[in-house]
Amino acid sequence: MNEAILPTEDHYRQAIASVERTMDRLRGCTDAERQHLHRDWDQLQEMLRKLTEGRVEIVVFGEISTGKSALINAMVGEAVAAVDVRGGWTQEVWHVPWKGCGYCIRGLANSQIVLVDTPGLNEVGGADRGVMAREAAERSDLILFVTDSDLNETEFSALTSLAAIHKPILLVFNKIDLYSPDQRQRLLQVLRDDRLLGIMPAENVVTTAADPRPVEYVIEAADGSTRHQWRTPQPDVGQLKARVLEILDQEGLALLALNGALYAADRSDRIAALRVALRDRTANQVIWSYAAVKSVTVALNPLPIADMLGGSAVDVTMVMTLSRIYGLEVSWGHARELITSILKAAGWLAGGIALEYAVHFASSAFKLLTVGYGTVLTAIPQGAAAGFGSYLVGHAAKHYFEHGSSWGNESPKEVVRRILDQTDRQSVLAGLKEEISKKLHGKKSEPPARR
Fold first, then answer.
1. Which residues of the chain have pLDDT under 70?
2. Is pTM, for the whole model, over 0.70?
3. pLDDT score of 8
4. In the beta sheet, which residues pair with residue 61?
């Protein structure tokens, strides 16, 4: 028997290790990234506690008034979840220990089962509660989907969505006491053989009467007189309990391990995606900022040699700044080499870029001949041309750093060509000219979004 469960125990330890690795990745984020991911950190900590304690979470879903809270009370054996005749009474996600079930994950002496009540699926204005419910589903090891009739469109849609997250699901046909035996049989047949065919096995459709309606009894006395008395039967959740414990006994540790590993992988993907998005946004802001600085610097400098030297320094500083955004460090010399390779890939003065650089050098020559008097006339076109060059260099360098200081599957020439194809050059130039005009007129400007 021990040999049979060793692989599962290994998987369980691996799941814990995967959560810890994901937390390590989060520790390596920048302060700005951690600020956006603080909720993920809290959730990962809770998942780690859940795994180490062997806590099995069974999440209860269903529409308003299908008897979710009553079902939890019946399973626990006491009124621990709020029940009210008003729809939408469950306002939050509730965690209720199932202390009386007598089950313990093998190998985890302190393990426990927790029943989680969620807001109704069709609750009006419950968008935030819907988020909480989805998060509960992601953490869950087993899902109970409660209905009190044939599935309607909302229920069926929710059930298929839950099935897509690959957790065991039991359909709980509650309030079975409201139906005649023939009606029960017919509804169970429809659910098992029609609605849920291919979604869940027939044995995972169980019946309950969590809050049975009172039954009228006629009591006859010894003298032949009769009286009527209403009695409420005991809740009937035996079939559900048996199926839950059967699943946990067969797969309890494996479910915990699989759930932990999937949760860690999902959070790891989210961390990676958010880091990419934040770095991309910051990099775009840096590129535009330096392109605007170069535009203004070149436009207002009356000396052509100073134009070139100053512009080159701006580009090198921009590339070094971009490298740090992606957690890399490049030297001044390496940054200059990267810029040179990008410009060579662009063909230096090829195509439309040639015109922009021709304007830049012609304007510089005009400045020299006029000893600075041509600055005002040439400032805007020359500065915009220089800024566009930085814009191109910046986005090519961004691609290079995104791929870990490599060009990935593309050559530098292909990267530059793609950037040019995807760039509205006239729009970028118009934006840079606007930046220069604002500076010439002493107005304060804010870098726009990427164009």
1. 1-7, 79-94, 100, 102, 106-107, 109, 122-133, 301-311, 347-379, 440-451
2. no
3. 72
4. 145
CB-CB contact of 68 with 61 (8 Å): yes
How far is the C-alpha of 58 from the C-alpha of 96, rounded, in Å?
Answer: 10
Angle at 444 between CA 438 and CA 447, to 5 degrees: 85
Predicted pLDDT at 351: 39
Q: Return all residues near 144 (Cβ < 8 A) that are at least 6 apart.
A: 58, 59, 60, 61, 71, 169, 170, 172, 240, 244
- In this predicted model, what pLDDT tens digit does every residue of 34-53 receive, in sequence order? 888 888 888 899 899 888 88
